[in-house]
Amino acid sequence: MKFYTIEWIDEVFKRYQTEESSFFIEDKEISFKPKHFLWALLHIYHNKELSFLGDLLNIEDLRSVLQHQVFDFMYLVDLLRKEFAYWFKENILYRDFSEETYFTLAHEFLLLEEQLRKQIQIPLLDQMKKLILDLEEIVEEGKSFENFDKKKFFRLIKFFNMVEKIEKSRCSELVDRAKTITEKAYKDAINFEFPLPSISKDEFKLVLKDKLNKQIFSTIKY
Q: CA-CA 20 to 30 A from 46: which of 55, 161, 185, 190?
């Protein structure tokens, strides 16, 4: 199973290890030790969802960093979350994935830190709502579909439909509205309903933990 959050962490962390003496994010030079930078990267996850991270890290060392460099560290966390949010949104908007991959992406999304989830969710839902309104107008007034971004609309439906299948939220009404207008607009509309892989949320976390340990922690240079 491929985890996109881990792929992002791995890519950024390797780049940091290579460019440690001259690493910048938004013109801000970053000068933490690699292991401290990794801890900042891991703040994309919700600590309550992935409490096992404490088993993989030296928490006392982290507390020492927070005691002496808390402002700089949390500023780095904010910068990295912003970078990740942009990267994740771009993937959802402009890439096509298999049903199994949307399942993985949705699960990973639900494990993200709450404010980070909102940074991703709100702009994407705004785009989906606009596309719903555009498509409803096209159907009601018999306008041309020529300028409607069907691919982006379907990508958003697939992602949020999968998120709602795993964990219901107030967004379910908007997702249902999107599917309803899709059925009206396209006779050959795709089927958004399919069986979910048989893995629980807890099992998913364990697989992610194992992947983190093998791909990230086993190769860290202290």
A: 161
Name residues whose C-beta falls within 8 Å of residue 175's C-beta, 6 or more positions apart in sequence.
157, 160, 161, 164
Q: How many domains does the chain have?
A: 1
Residue 155 lies in a domain: no
Name the pLDDT band for 98 (thresholds 50, 70, 90): very high
Mean pLDDT within 114-130: 97
> Is 182 among the domain residues?
no
Residue that is written with structure tokens 């910068």 in the block:
79
Quote the percentage of the chain above a pLDDT of 70: 91
Give the per-residue pLDDT at 56: 62
Half-sphere exposure at residue 111, Cβ-oriented, CA atoms within 13 angstroms = 26
Let me know if residue 153 belongs to a domain: no
Where residue 181 falls (left for φ over 0; alpha for ψ -120 to 50; beta otherwise) is alpha
| Distance in angstroms (rounded) separating the CA atoms of residues 87 and 219 | 24
The verdict on residue 128 lying in a domain is no
Spatial neighbors of 163 by CB under 8 A, at least 6 apart, are 106, 109, 110, 169, 171
What DSSP assignment string belongs to 39-58? HHHGGGB-TTTTTTHHHHS-
In terms of residue numbers, what domain contains 41?
A: 4-97+200-219
